[in-house]
Amino acid sequence: MKMRAAVIREMMKPRPYEASKPFAIAEVELDPPGENEVLVRIRAAGLCHSDLSTVNGDRPRPMPMVLGHEAAGEVAELGRGVKNLEVGDHVILVFVPSCGGCLPCMEGRPGLCEPAVTANAAGTLLSGAKRIKLDGRPVHHHVGVSAFAEYAVVSRHSLVKIDKSLPFEEAALFGCAVVTGAGAVFNTAKLPAGSSVGVIGLGGVGLMAMLAARAAGARQIIAIDTLEDKLKLARQLGATHAVNARDPNAVEQVKVASGGGVEFAFEMASSVKALELAYKVTKRGGTTVTASLPHPDHRFALPATNLVAEERTLKGSYIGSCVPARDLPRYVSLYRQGLLPVDRLLSERIGLDGINEGFDRLADGATVRQVLLP
């Protein structure tokens, strides 16, 4: 079938993207789903910093590619062997398809699925196939999803069925912002009730981590960012304190407010400087969690003796340490109860033709979550 998609042919084009146009809206060919694959009509896709990290070269990917990893849609066609789904079902797309048979999957850590890591790095589906073509040549898939398009062929293992009453533009955010931000709090940190928390970086993932910390019963939530508009939103969403990271006394402000540092700090800004800040505001005996992905060449240095003498913990969190089929329904339930107000993260709705301008807004930090409606 033919469809419209936003195709990126090269990374690191200069800003503004409105002028350099890293994304070209093109008519591409999409092959039908193979065995254990599903054709999904994309109904909503979020613009996330992980997509921007490919556009600006921080996360190198094979080109050309159709980006987009945070999405929801409707099942349009089933490939051979697909079970437990029907045409018309509503689904959230997950950017790490889990094979179910490798050691991490069997240990309950599907985010570390070994075949998925290989496929995602190569720009293929879990099967190793590429189903998108432009001018007769293969186009790479983005982490098995490629949602900046009207349709996507994905592995059955990339889909979680949801109730049809959940609006698509809200459901899309569960595929990354919610699963990553809330998962870092609930699964990676296993945040105890009554904890003090700092969140560095108030994009969609950071704000969701903040909301999850509130839902988990944190007694104190200190929101930290460089933009006053985001600090204002964080206060509206329940932050007890807000600190501008550009302030030379930012670390001291956090320590004063928290009585020596927070017990849990969550870094969500995709910056080594932000990670350094998160580590500095964590108290002795505390835990620093990072779920961001800065450029792979960037390094983080810390006083090694602190890990022992202060009993520090530094943890990484990928896809929120989640089991998506287990956790996404739980998070949707928390949303329906008003405990995770995901809808408050929605900033703007755009079409495919506005995607380059949308990434300018994302790069400027001028928005929380833009949702593309193909």
Helix-strand blueprint:
Layout: E1 2-8, H1 17-20, E2 23-30, E3 37-46, H2 49-55, E4 65-66, E5 70-78, E6 90-93, H3 103-106, H4 114-122, E7 132-134, E8 137-141, E9 151-155, E10 159-162, H5 168-188, E11 196-200, H6 204-215, E12 220-225, H7 228-236, E13 241-244, H8 250-258, E14 262-267, H9 272-280, E15 282-290, H10 304-309, E16 313-316, H11 324-336, E17 346-350, H12 355-364, E18 369-372
Helix pairs in contact: 5-6, 5-11
Radius of gyration: 20 Å
Q: Proportion of β residues? A: 25-35%
CATH superfamily of the largest domain: Medium-chain alcohol dehydrogenases, catalytic domain
Low-confidence residue ranges: none
The 3D shape can be described as: globular
Structural class label: alpha/beta
User: How many DSSP helices?
Assistant: 12
Separation of termini? 16 Å
Question: H/E series, N to C?
Answer: EHEEHEEEHHEEEEHEHEHEHEHEHEHEHE
Main beta-sheet annotation: 7 strands, mixed
Query: What's the CATH class label of the largest domain?
Result: Alpha Beta
> What count of structural domains?
2
Q: What is the count of β-strands?
A: 18
Average of the residue pLDDT scores? 96
**The CATH topology of the largest domain, please?**
Quinone Oxidoreductase, Chain A, domain 1
CATH level-two architecture of the largest domain: Alpha-Beta Complex
What percent of residues adopt helix (DSSP H or I)? Answer: 25-40%
